[in-house]
Specification:
With 481 residues, the chain is an alpha+beta fold. The protein is built from 14 helices and twelve strands. The strands form four sheets. It has a five-stranded antiparallel β-sheet with strand order 4-5-6-7-8, with no helix packed on it. The protein has a three-stranded antiparallel β-sheet with strand order 3-2-9. It has a two-stranded antiparallel ribbon with strand order 1-12. Helix 4 packs across helix 6 and helix 7 packs antiparallel against helix 8.
Length: 481
């Protein structure tokens, strides 16, 4: 056996450490680093309740956490992610759109907002608590709805994390979600009332089994096989908590530094050097100074003033570095987190927003559209056809064809972007309909509005320099030929 082989046999562990990855080696730098090897569900189930309660508490009292969620939700949802029916028949497509617009005001089972307000609520609940539950509630014809369907938004606390058992029919429950033998979600076991609503006289710990076809479970999956979502602030909760405490301590120190106090040293307690009055019950006698005062002191008497420590010069730099780390952990820009636009120019803020908007688009299409909007649209179409609110003709699958249009992103300098869009359309790199969709509008609706405006202007004999239509050619005089 060679010398190298003997070394491998005698020191297998050390040999692997020397020839493997440094991050996997047991060295002085990695001493005490023993990460958990559990799967994502074991990790989430064990700490979800604590993570969620701390995330909600941080959003309630911390302005940075609140602003971070508002920034993300405002950009992802805005005025709403709106559907555009793709039914091949124009008349039916227009009727679908009108019926949907009417139903959006009736969508909320609580009657507090419209369908797009429910999108905002669902997105915010998903970010703050890690997940959101939406119940699809079928209604009776006597309820007088345009389409007999309403939506109920529930927080993730309605789905217990400690409900884990096997059922007699072969199904099993994991963290409140019931699966069949092949791992398909078949039902959700939900608390009838919010388990944290201690002031509700109707509060109950009873679990209700709701079929999976009537429940939408929104969360952002980050690992394969994940069953429940985690709050988006999970990576920065500790840093936010400690930074909030540090900032409060600096505020108190600044307040203390602004206080000006003097201390009089007397030869005898009964002396009144600065004309102070009688002592209060605690034995303290207070005095004041007026501008221009010249006070003569006796030998041995003295007046000393406090000089509290001021906030260090590194405070602003330290806070900026920490807030940048928090912004990166949440997935937004530093400027969105703090509102601080110092030193920002058009190029720098555009570069940061481009990366942020890619994340928004990813969440819009992979979570909000796929997990919420598409299932609701299919259920709504089914309810509308069954209630004969829509004419049933042709291929039933054509009714479910839809394109969801998220809100458009506005830029700091829209003139440059409009010119770039015009060049892309003229060069054939994209269609005009796609440009309109990127702005959050329906191209067909825009065309109808333009045609109506042009027709009204023609009828009234109006002419605008913004009208791009070519002038009509002059009629030819055949007699001159």
């Amino acid at each position: 056996m060679t010398l190298l082989g003997r070394l491998k046999a005698l020191l297998p562990g050390r040999w692997r450490m020397a020839s493997g990855y440094e991050a996997a080696a047991n060295t002085r730098r990695t001493t005490g680093w023993w990460p958990a090897t559990s799967d994502i569900n074991t990790l989430v189930f064990g700490g979800l309740d604590t993570l969620r309660s701390r995330s909600r508490e941080m959003v309630r009292r911390n302005p940075w956490a609140t602003n971070a969620l508002d920034a993300f939700v405002g950009n992802c949802v805005g005025a709403g992610i709106k559907p555009q029916s793709l039914h091949p028949e124009a008349a039916i497509r227009e009727r679908i759109q009108k019926l949907w617009l009417r139903w959006t005001d009736e969508a909320d089972a609580s009657g507090l907002t419209d369908f797009y307000g429910l999108q905002t609520l669902a997105c915010r609940s998903t970010a703050e608590g890690g997940e959101c539950i939406i119940r699809l509630r079928s209604r009776l014809p006597k309820d007088g709805l345009s389409v007999p369907l309403q939506l109920q938004i529930l927080e993730g606390e309605h789905l217990p994390t400690n409900e884990n058992r096997r059922l007699e029919n072969g199904n099993y429950i994991r963290a409140g979600i019931e699966f069949n033998a092949i791992g398909k979600r078949v039902a959700y076991h939900l608390y009838r009332e919010h388990p944290g609503d201690s002031l509700n006289p109707m509060a109950s710990t009873e679990l209700v089994r709701v079929p999976a076809e009537s429940v939408l479970h929104l969360f952002r999956p980050i690992r394969p096989g994940q069953l429940r979502g985690q709050p988006w602030l999970a990576q920065v909760l500790v840093k936010l908590h400690e930074l909030d405490q540090y900032d409060d301590a600096e505020l108190v120190r600044k307040k203390t530094a602004a206080m000006f106090a003097g201390f009089v040293i007397k030869n005898a307690p009964e002396d009144q050097i600065l004309g102070e009055g009688e002592a209060d019950p605690s034995g303290a006698a207070l005095a004041g100074l007026e501008p221009g005062t010249l006070q003569v002191l006796l030998p041995g008497e003295d007046v000393k003033f406090s000089s509290p420590a001021d906030v260090g010069a590194s405070y602003e730099t330290f806070m900026r570095v920490q807030l940048r780390s928090i912004a990166a952990g949440i997935g937004i820009t530093y400027e969105q987190l703090t509102g601080d636009l110092t030193g920002v120019n058009y190029s720098s803020i555009r570069a940061g927003l481009l990366e942020f908007r890619r994340r928004c688009e990813q969440f819009q299409h992979q979570v909000l559209v796929f997990q919420m909007c598409q299932p609701i649209w299919r259920r709504w179409i089914q309810a509308a056809l069954e209630a004969e609110a829509l004419p049933y003709a042709g291929d039933p699958a054509a009714y479910s064809e839809v394109k969801w249009i998220p809100p458009g992103f506005a830029w700091v300098d829209p003139l440059k972007d409009i010119k770039a869009q015009m060049m892309a359309v003229r060069a054939g790199f994209k269609s005009r309909s796609e440009v309109v969709s990127e702005q959050g509008y329906d191209a067909e609706a825009i065309d109808r509005e333009i045609a109506a405006d042009n027709q009204r202007a023609d009828d009234l004999g109006l002419s605008y320099d913004t009208d791009p239509r070519p002038e009509e050619p002059l009629p030819t005089d055949e007699s001159n030929e």
